Each structure stands twice: as structure tokens, then as C-alpha cells.
Amino acid sequence: MKRKVYVVPHSHWDREWYFSQEDSNVILSQNMNFLLDFLDAHAEFPSYVFDGQYSVMHDFLAKYPEKRELAEKLVAAGRLKIGPWYTQCDTLLNQTESVIRNLLLGKMGADRLGGAMAVGYLPDIFGQNAYLPSIFKRFGLENAVLQRGLYTAQVAENLNFLWQAPNGETVQANNLYFGYGPGKFLAADATYLEQSLLPILDKLAEMTPADTPLLLPAGGDQVLVRTHFPQVVAALNAQDLPYEFVLSNYEEFMSAVNFDSSVKTISGELTACQKSRIHNTIRSQRVDLKMLNARVEEKIYQQLEPLSVLTKKLGGTYPSSWINDCLRELFDAHAHDSLGGCNSDETNLAIKHRLLKIERVVDGYINILKKQIARGVGENAILAFNLLPKALTKNVKFVLFTREKTVRLKGLTQTLLKQDYISGGKAVKAMADGEHEIELPGYYRSEILAAVSFDGFGYRTFELENAAPNLLTGCQSEISNDFYEVKFDKGNLTLTRLSDGAVRSNWFDFEDATDAGDSYDYSPTDEDALPTFSGHFSLVKSQSSALVSQLTILSVLSGQEILTEITLEKGSKGIKISHKINNQRKNHRVRVRFHGENAEGVSYGDQGFSLQKRQNINPYLTTWREEGFVESPQAIYPLERFVCVPELTGAVSLYTKGLKEYEATADSLNLTLFRAVGLLGRDDLAWRPGRASGINNKIVETPDAQMLGDWQFDYVYQWADQLDVAEQYRAAEQFASNVLTYQLQSLNSFEERLERFELPQPEAMKNLPERLNLLTLPNHLFVSAFKKAEQSDASILRVFNPTEETVKLPDFAQVDLTEKLTDSLSVLTERDFANLEIKL
């Protein structure tokens, strides 16, 4: 009996790369017009997959609205497969919330055109998020087709498997062992059969049970539909071959596979680099874009959306269309090449401007909503907003404008961080004898850090008093708070944990290594080119107050100065660290190394809604060449928000925003600050033999990727007595920017984006209370999103439980990820998440 082969014609559509998005869309206009007309005229061509992302159709129809009716007809008939993604996003470089929203907007858009492809399609991203099976499942997607991240041994007996998320949910999956293009040049001649097609099919057959069909993706990057495929398939079937070919799609193939009890279950994140390159050091490429993206994500998910929920409850408007437009732009920047940074300088510049454009819109709306609420509270209101629906005590920065130099917030422990006198400028006044310039009185801009307690989701109002503030004053060469002492002594930096007196001498230093790689991968040089390390520190400044203490030190690395500010705040278990460097070196990688003693040879990086356990040394590291790995399996890992390492003296954690790459060794935790390289692709790297990644027939120079100029890197270090998962996530909540402040004032109209413009006040937003708490979640739940529902006036609160304990859920209705009502659970089991529908 012949083995059936499902031939899937498709296009993999890179939104941008070494070419711009404008280039891509111009090509798209030609290819998509041709494809739609061809499919309409040729019923013998059953279906075509357009890369599983809706964004290309969204952009196409914006320019060709007259083709919408035809597109709807073909999609509804199953002839054209689009979605469920909005874009093929990199799932390891952004918030998992972005992965969920990408699918939500993609599925909504594709469904409006007739229906999204019912497969979680992952043809080309550089590693798979561990929670994708559960996310797919809760979007109603029971199947996934993916290329990268698996070891050959995992799929040697069956390329079809059950893929399991950390919460236990599974989807049926197929591994594209030869990638998404083995049938791109499908033909029926003898040479092609003998040299290409049959060896591929024989290998796939060897790796698949005898009663299971084979999958042959037949497409490539930006390819035009192969109009001759029906004739080729007929010609192949007319020959005496052990295979029967059928022109089909991924949905039909997955329906034909028998996922019985013999099918293996594979768990968690998929980042193996045996058969397909993962580029595990791409996470430090163009880190400026990654930090900007992290800032924008945080402003949308942790600030604007919950602030909009609050505003809507108070009688204002939730800016749904603006937020979703920003998300679409954001997801254009999340495609695997885009956010990876492995692009031409022209493309990376466009990504940067796209992210800045989103940020301007988000900042503007945050400004408007804060002002409307403050107006409703009353004249001269000073507000602090807690946008996390939990009880919270946090050190919060206020920016205040006053005529008086001495200023305090009544009733708060606080420190004046900075104060500047600002000239009032001049105004033109019309008089009988003409216009006159009038000198306006000046005022003070003060930055105050204050400890604020919140009962839950809402806001508090504060008053000013004319009293002397608590100032930062000079101190000796050591600083401390309730948990730590940091001491500078003769060029060394010592950290003491006060709970037990544990000491860490020579706490951290910097490593600079020559980078002989390219935009995809770091590469060491020969064995003689060893990294250089920073020497002793020198003390620049030390200052302290009752609330905050700061130590500023200088170090020299490869002839370049790094200025580091270490901040301890009262009541905080996290040590804030900021590095500033003016980089003038090329082709190198800079990391900060925190010294310690790794207790178990493992690290934990957060991903999705739990911690991923990783080995410090990959078991294939000594045999990867002999076993045919396409890359060296270095134990360099991604993180979403933090990494934690169990040590002999507790657990060390680093909380970052956009710094996405770390390596844990027996004696240090190494956080990559940045890589600086100047080529898009390079052949024969030490850790990546063979061809250049991406395009290998053209050298693309990327001087902007050398990261020359001034950079600042901010993160938090924590040294706990033990590894406590819930406490790790509570520390992440503390580091997140989920509290905003606002002063209703008329002295300065340039501090926030839209202060100088006249704005209407919603009639319903008047006489608001001075203090408001709308919702307080229990401390054992953590929040991924708080937003308005897409199709109703309810709010959606996405919560998760990262621990191994079962926790109780509040009594709210529950929805799936498409935001449709589902069965409600009373508890949340280990490493699981839930979507609550709330009507405030």
C-alpha cells in the first residue's frame, strides 16, 4: 500500500528583514493579487496557505479594498488559509501577553474574512515558548505544526507528537524535520526524484509509523504560487512510486494523523539546535530595540490598559481602537526577524521608529486619562494610581511643580531626589500702546520618592505641605537598608545579606569578549583571544536618606569607563543597578558577571506563567559536531522578566526589562548587556559552521549594530535566603512600572506629552472620590493583563499561578482566550492561568 504524502503549497512571508516592510508590501501587492485571481479561476488547485498570519491580508486589503469580497469567498471556502496569528512573532523575546494578543487580533481578523486556519503554525521562529500548547488550546486550536527546537532523538520514531505545556495541557503537533521548504521546487522528472524528493520522503517515512501519512511543505520565502503543482502531483501519481501524493493543507494533514496512545508526549519549551538553528545569542543583538520594545509592552499592558479600565468605570472612554492599532504596529515589530534585530540597518531604524510611534500614542493617552481623573477629583489634585489589582506598598516617584522651594507630600515617608528652578519665561500681553513682553515668575520642579500603600486597584490623592523635605546627603563608602549592606573598600565591592550575615566579596565585575559573529550569533575567536575583565572599582559618590541610599562607582573595561549606580530603598528586597557606558568599541560582547556558587548546576528563567528549569551545561556540548548539530548547544538562555539561580547561600535573581540573555555557570550568573557586530551574515562561525544564516550570497554591512554611543542598562538584583517561586514573582511585580502619578497643575505644560493642549472633560467624570479601590486580588494570584473585552463592556483579567500549589480563584465568570464564556473553575492548579470576566 502506498504511503500518502500531503503536499502543502504555501508562502512564508517575512514582513521585513534585509529588505524593508515597504519592499515586502509592494511584492505582496503583486503576489496576492495574482494568487486571489488564480485560485478563483482554478478550482483544481484546492487550497493555499499564506503563512498563518493575518497581517499580510490586513495590509493588502488596505490598498486593494475591491478584492475583499473575493478574499472572503476564498477564505470561507477553505481555499485560502490565513491566520491564526497576526504576525509570526518571536515567542521568546516578548511578553507572553503579546503572544496571546497576537493570536487574538489575528484570529479575530481572519475570522471576519471567513475563518482562521485551525493550526498553530510555527514555521520559522527561533525556539518555542513553553506555554504555546495551552495558549493554542484555549484559542480552540488543537493542532500545531512547527520546525525548530527539537532534538532528533525526540522525533526519531514519529514526527508527530503531543506537545505539553507546563500546566499539563497538550496539542497534537508535527515537526517539520526538513523545514518549510522541502517541496518548494516539486517536480516529476527523474533527476529531481532521485536526488531530492525520494531521499527526503524516505527519511520522513523512516521517522513516521507505517500507517501514518507524510507532510511535505511546498513553499518558501516570498514565493509566488506554483500554478503547475496540480499537474506535477498528477504526474507523480502516474509513476510507479511507493507514495501517493495529494495537494492539501495543514488542517487536512493533521486530521489524517492518528494520535493514539503510542504517540510520545514532549514537554515545555523547545530550544534544541540539532537540526535547525535557534540562534540563542540573537537575544542580545540590537538590545536597544529589545529594551524599547519591553518599555512599550509594559506601558500598554501594565499601564494604559488597566488605567483605561479604571477610566471607563469612572465614566470615561476606553480607547479600544487606539490600543488595538498600537498592538498591530507592535506585532509588526515582533516578527522573528524584526524583534531578533537580525536585519538591515534600514529595517532596524524603521522598527525603532515604529516602536517610538506606538510609545507616543500610549504616552498621550496615559496623559489624557490621568488628567481626566485628576480633574474629576478636584483642583490641584495629586494622584498615585495603582494599576495592579492587589494590595501593594511601593516606593513611587512623583514629579511636582511648585512656586515654593520647600515642598513635601503630607503624611508620607519621602526623599527629595532632585530639584530644579525653572524660569517662567515670557508672555506677550496686548496693551493700548502695543504688545509687551511680560516676565513670568519662575517655579520649581521636584522629583520626590515616597513610600505609598494601596488597598488595591484604584488611586489615592495627596496634599502638599510647605515643609523641609528629606534630602539625600553624602555618607561614607557604604550604604544599607533593611536587607543589605553594600560596602566599597579599597577598590572592592562587598555585599552583605543582613538576615543571616552572608557575605559576597568581589560581588560583580564586567566581561568584554571579542565577537567574531554576525547579527544572528555571537562567536568567539580562537582560543588565544581570551575575554578581558574589569579591574577594581573607584568610588564616585555615596549618599543616603531615610528612604533611599545610592552608591556610584566607576570601573574600566577594555579602556572604556562604566559608571554604575547601586540603589537600596527602604523595605525593598531588590537592589536596583544601573550601568552607563559610552561604547566606542566594535565587534565585542559585554556582560556583567555576578559571582556565586551554583548549588545544583541549573538555572530558572521565567517564561509564560512559570519558571523553566535549565541545565548549566548542555549534555550534547562535547559531541555536537560528531552528532551533526547545526549549532553549538551553548547553555545560553532567554528570559522573559527574570532569571533565578539556586546557590549554596540561597537564590540569586536578576529582574530585567529588555535584557533577554543570560548564562549560569558553576561560579557566576552572567547577564549580557549588549553585543556589537557589523554584519548581517557571516560564514563558518566557531559555534555555527557552514553557511551564513539568512542570505548567504550577499554581505550586508550593519554599522548601526555596532552599538556605538551612550547606553544605559537598568535591572534589579535580589539575594534571597531560598528559592520561593511566589516570592520571585512578587519581586517582579515590585520591579514592574504598574504605579503612575500625576499632578494637576498649571505651572508647566511640557512635562507630559499633551499637557499644553485643551481637552474636554467627560460629563460623568465629575465629583470623583479622593480615594478609590475597585478590586483587590489575593496575594497568591499574579496578573498578566487587565483590559476591556473585545466584544462586550466587561473587563478581562488574566491571572496565573506560577507555583506547584493549587490556589483559590475569586468568584467571577471565566472565558477562554477568544473571550467566550467557558466552564468556571473554583481553583487554579499548578503553573496554570485563567481568564476572568469582571463587571466592575
UniProtKB/TrEMBL annotation:
Gene3D superfamilies: Glycoside hydrolase 38, N terminal domain, Glycoside hydrolase family 38, central domain, Golgi alpha-mannosidase II, domain 4. GO terms for molecular function: alpha-mannosidase activity; carbohydrate binding. Coiled coil: none annotated. Residues 479-677 form the Glycosyl hydrolase family 38 C-terminal domain. InterPro entries: Gal_mutarotase_sf_dom, Glyco_hydro/deAcase_b/a-brl, Glyco_hydro_38_C, Glyco_hydro_38_cen_sf, Glyco_hydro_38_N, Glyco_hydro_38_N_sf. It holds the Pfam family Glyco_hydro_38C. GO terms for biological process: mannose metabolic process; oligosaccharide catabolic process. Residues 4-258 form the Glycoside hydrolase family 38 N-terminal domain. Belongs to the glycosyl hydrolase 38 family. This is Alpha-mannosidase.
